TrEMBL record:
A GO molecular function held by the record: phosphoglycolate phosphatase activity
Pfam families: Hydrolase
Organism ancestry: Bacteria, Pseudomonadati, Pseudomonadota, Gammaproteobacteria, Pseudomonadales
Record-level GO BP terms: DNA repair
Protein name: Putative hydrolase of the HAD superfamily
Organism: Marinobacter pelagius
Cross-referenced CDD domains: HAD_like
Length: 229
């Protein structure tokens, strides 16, 4: 699955990789349409018919992930509405064990997320996820999403890394394909990002797992890197 002996840095997606994607899917597909319908006096299905095509049209762009963009475009407080269902924010299985194992192996762990800083702050407040990793980078700080192969070059300006010795873990096939194009040494796909949805089909070329317990034994057998790395 992963050649841990050649890894120095692990880039980790957040939503759907470390955190259960159920929160985000529930928000965009259920909670937002319901609250939008209430605000603009629509039936909920009318709200869905209005919102979903609008949202899907931005898929893969930075706007797709941008709280400020959707707050302004829809005339609603996206961050406030997300906080209303913040109790649904939670870890995926075996995540904290995996993050602790990365640290024990002496590997550098960096969350590299398309999440906007506002919902990112909410998720960190709810989970304490930032305690388990070395740093966090939001693509909004770089002005382009992870789907853009140029993102990975710009990422070096805020968190230097050596591409061949880096592992990227993500639930998005387009992001992983982008990382591979940019020379990231190894990629690993998450097939079960949403606990309430069936697992997806495997990618034909990118190794994949359902949960981190599948790679934990090999990771725990890895010898720690020298402290002067």
């Amino acid at each position: 699955m992963v050649d841990w002996s050649s890894v120095e840095t692990v880039f980790l997606d957040m939503d759907g990789t470390l955190l259960d994607l159920h929160f985000d899917n529930h928000f965009w597909l259920e909670h937002l349409p319901r609250r939008y319908a209430e605000q603009f006096d629509l039936h909920q299905q009318q709200a869905k018919d209005t919102l979903i095509p609008m949202i899907m049209a931005e898929r893969g762009s930075l706007n797709w992930y941008c709280t400020d963009y959707w707050s302004e475009k829809l005339s609603v407080d996206i961050t406030g509405l997300k906080a209303e269902v913040g109790d649904r924010i939670g870890y995926r299985p075996h995540v904290t064990d995996f993050l602790e194992a990365l640290k024990a192996a002496g590997l550098r762990s960096v969350i590299v997320t398309n999440c906007h800083p506002d919902p990112l702050a909410l998720k960190l407040e709810r989970t304490g996820l930032d305690r388990y990793v070395d740093s966090i980078v939001s693509s909004h700080d770089l002005g382009k999403p992870k789907e853009d192969p140029l993102f990975w070059q710009d990422l070096k300006s805020v968190t230097p890394y050596t591409a061949p010795s880096t592992l990227m873990v993500d639930d998005s096939f387009p992001v992983l394909e982008s990382a591979r194009t940019a020379g990231i040494g190894q990629c690993l796909a998450i097939l079960a990002p949403d606990s309430r949805q069936p697992a997806r089909e495997r990618h034909p070329e990118i190794p994949s797992i359902h949960h981190f317990n599948e790679v934990l034994p090999a990771l725990r057998q890895r010898q720690p890197l020298p402290s002067n790395r």
